[in-house]
Write a structure and sequence with these properties.
By secondary structure, the protein is an alpha+beta fold. It contains eight helices and 18 strands. Helix 1 (14-25) runs parallel beside helix 4. Keywords: Monooxygenase, Oxidoreductase. This is 2-polyprenyl-6-methoxyphenol hydroxylase. It comes from Streptomyces spongiae.
Amino acid sequence: MPSVRNVLIVGGGTAGNTLAILLRRSGVEVDLVEIDPEWGALGSGITLVGNALRVLREVGVWDRVEANIAAVPAHLDHFKFGGPDVPGVCGMYRPTLQAILKDAVRHSGARVRLGTTVEKLEETGDRVTVTLRDGTVRDYDLVVGADGIHSATRAMIGIPDLPRPTGLAIWRVYIRRPPGLEHGAIQHGGPHHYITGYNMVSATHMYAYIFEDARDRSAVRRLDPVAEFRRLAEPLDGVWPAIRESVTEPRQVDYRNLDYLLIDSPWNRGRTIVIGDAAHALSLIQI
């Protein structure tokens, strides 16, 4: 009998889903609550390095992940952080990774509740009494906040840290790969932008990105995202003219200001702990 018998995980992103699967494998009863009724994933592409792939192999989803990644060519794959049998780095379509993990969570036997989250936490002795927004009340041995950089769980347990702006923003687009393009590239400190680059995320698609100074979000929302990304990409050469012409619909474009967060240890208060971006959210420029 494990010393922790039941756990509530708040948040069904990569960290929360992965933890749910591993806890179930250890015989722990798991409830996972996710405020998004669609249990979806934000963004388009994600870059995964070897240590992340090692964990996905441990979770038991590596075969499905491997079938949906775009790994760097072998002659560029020098840093095997996850071991000799997984790529050092690869790209993947983020919603595909989320779908794979969601399936694994459900098959693990974890109970999933969507469209709700925690309203109140009250620790008494060796239990945490949790009240959800839908009125459900239940006791748990442990509560895990995996609810992202703007974690409500973190605030509930009295950790005062808030995300800090980096002063930079990123424009990202999700497009089909131009013919003949085999791997990604990145340029730092070019004449036009701080950082530009692109990564492959599947055999057919890629994402490209441009860093710039952060802007007022309300001003950005008034822009035509296609026209603005194309304007920013205008001076870039190489494969960028093909990237630029591939951006035709607003849904292809994602803009966000970049924040970061790293809370001091301990990451728990009593029997509630925060993990993932709720505890250590690095911006893309810090990875």
